[in-house]
Every structure is written in C-alpha cells, then in structure tokens.
Amino acid sequence: MKYLRDKLSVMGESLAGLFFPRLCPACSGVLYGNESILCLKCNCEFPRTGFHLDPANDTARLFWGRVMIKNAASFFFYQKGSRFQNIIHKVKYHNCRHLGMEMGRWYGHELVNTPFCHADLIHPVPLHVRKQRKRGYNQSELIAKGLSESLSLPMETGLVERVMYTDTQTRKSKYERWSNVEGIFRVIHPEKLKNKHVLLVDDVVTTGSTLEACAAPILSVEGTQVSILTLAYAKLW
Ligand SMILES: [Zn+2]
Q1: What is the CATH number of domain 48-234?
Q2: Assuming Cys at both sites, which of 54, 132, 218, 234 could form a disulfide with 78, CB separation 3.0 to 4.6 Å?
Q3: Across the strands, what pairs with 199?
C-alpha cells in the first residue's frame, strides 16, 4: 500500500511538473527532479562571495568608520545584466515569496558554525508601512525567515520601524543616497532589544546607507550589537 501511495505521489509530481514545470529563477530553464532552487548549471556558476569567511570583506568594509557592525556578509555578487540579478528581481518585485525564503534557508545552511549563529535574534530591515501595503510583503522578511529556520535563531519584526517614506533609490547618485537616509528608522520596542545581538537582514547592499540608518537607532539601545546579512552585494562602479 505504501509503495503504491509513494508511486502515485511521484507520478502526481511528474504530472504536475509536465503542466507546471518548476523553473530556475536565474536562467528560466526547467528544473529537474533533483534540482531544488537553481538548475545545476546556475548552481555551479552561482557567484558566491565567500564573505562570511573573511571578516574584512567588502560588505563589512562599507560600514567601517560609519557605524559599529560586529560581522557583515552577503551571499552573492549582484551584477547588472547577470542572470543572477533575476533572483533579486523575482523576490522583490514579482511576488516570488517562496524563493525569498528558500534563498534565506540556503544561505543559512552555509552560515552554520560561523559567528552569525551567535546572534540573539534576526530582524529584517523594515519597509515603510505604505510600501509594504503596496507590495503586499517585505522581501527582507522572507529572507530573514529562511535564515532564522536554518540558523535556528528567532526572527522578530516590528521592533524597529521605517518612519520616512523614501522613493526608489535606484536612480540617485551615491552622494544623494548617503544624504537622505538619516533618521528614517526608529526603534519602537527598546526593551526587547536591550543587551541583544541583532542580525539585521536586507535583500541587497549597495552603499550600505539604508543598513547604516537602520543599525544606528538599534545601537543606541543599551548593550546592543548589530551584525548584517544580505542576499546580494552590488558594486556601484
Ligand atoms: Zn539556471
């Protein structure tokens, strides 16, 4: 009986795959049975940064002299025109919520036994309430949820909020991006952050200004430490 049930379930999956094939989010090729998130080729060519193995990595350096961050790392390099850019676009703009969580879970597995496991809680960089309502979800929260599962760390949301609504920053110059982020976040539950090591999570880091703006009010709470993880690291030039 069990054999029959297993057989039927495999057949069901294959049938579903025939009509609704799972696609690789990077190259859009069809995924085969043993390929979970990315296809084999994209998995092999996935532009990992390896930043978590180097405390003086490029993500960490972004914050030097600006805000005291304990550890920082990013999973992969984000390059314009690269097919891996599609992963971020799908998570951020195309409602691929499951992909956000899967990527977070995958990254978390690679971070086991690194200093990132020693945080007390994971908190996503919040969106402004108006933006979140418009999008329907916070992409960083999905990534944080995946990370929290594989790192076995609790995820909290709503301890920090975004008080200023900023327009999309994609077309702004580096100077403008740096200058318009001060005071855009506010801690609303300092008692839950006191003496905690917070792992802040965002989708992409470019100048680090948003993360800096979010980390600063957390660090103003007594006894806190902040580490940072992002899915992607984008070079501005
Ligand atoms: Zn692929």
Answers
A1: 3.40.50
A2: 234
A3: 122, 227
